[in-house]
Amino acid sequence: MTSYHRSKDRAISISHHSSPLTHHSEMSPFLFWIFAVLTVIFGAAVVLNRNPVASALSLVVSFLGLSALFMSLDAFFVGIIQVLVYAGAVMVLFLFIIMLLDIRAEERRRINWLAAGGGIGVAVILLVQICVVIGHFKVARQPFPSLARSTTDDVWNIGRLLFTNYNLPFQIIGVLVLVATIGVVILSRREPR
User: Fold this and answer.
1) Which domain holds residue 169?
2) What is the pTM assigned to this prediction?
3) CB atoms within 10 A of CB 61
4) Do the Cβ atoms of 38 and 65 come closer than 8 Å?
5) What would the pLDDT profile of 128-140 be if each residue is shown by its tens digit?
6) pLDDT for 154-192, tens place per residue?
């Protein structure tokens, strides 16, 4: 047996053993249900709130719960981007627009019980159909196989590219967002004539 074959056999035997980097830590079901219920409740609060500021803040909490669910799937970059882009930038933009337009809370209207009953009926029928489909397929009842853990650090690679090759565009966007923020604050503070 040549040294090439011995090193190849050794590499194969090493690859079959689990290393500390390939250990997959799963989120406990208790935490999963807390974050999932939090996301759904505050997502519903976005639609049900009459006050636009409370609705926007409910959307922020819903994004935070969604970010925690992404991080439980070891998608750390997607989870952090969810917080930075959606909960940070987009929601600040929404709040600035709400303040700039001076949107008041919507007045309560009479509930159309026929439309509400029809919507609830359609939702129940859809839920029953989903349960029937999942119950008939054996594959749908099996858990998903665990994902292969990446050996490269995506966040480090993206950060390195951002601050080396794309440093100037990154700085220009930062200054542009700062100028837009200052402009919105000045416009929203202007006294009406």
Assistant:
1) 150-193
2) 0.57
3) 17
4) yes
5) 998 888 888 877 7
6) 778 888 888 889 889 888 988 888 888 788 778 777 655
33 — phi, psi (to 5°)?
Answer: -70, -35
Check if the beta carbon of residue 140 is closer than 8 Å to that of residue 134. yes
| Closest-CA residue to 189 (of 101, 100, 104) | 100
193 DSSP 8-state letter:
-
Please tell me whether residues 108 and 181 are part of one structural domain.
Answer: no
In the three-class reduction of DSSP (H, G, I as helix; E, B as strand; rest coil), residue 108 is classed as coil
**Nearest in space to 61 (alpha carbons), one of 79, 83, 84:** 83
Note whether 166 and 103 are same-domain residues.
Answer: no
Nearest to 87 by CA among 46, 117, 137: 46
Question: What φ, ψ does residue 108 adopt, rounded to 5°?
Answer: -70, 135
Structure-derived torsion over alpha carbons of residues 117, 123, 125, 127, reported in degrees to the nearest 10: -150
Domain count, the chain: 2
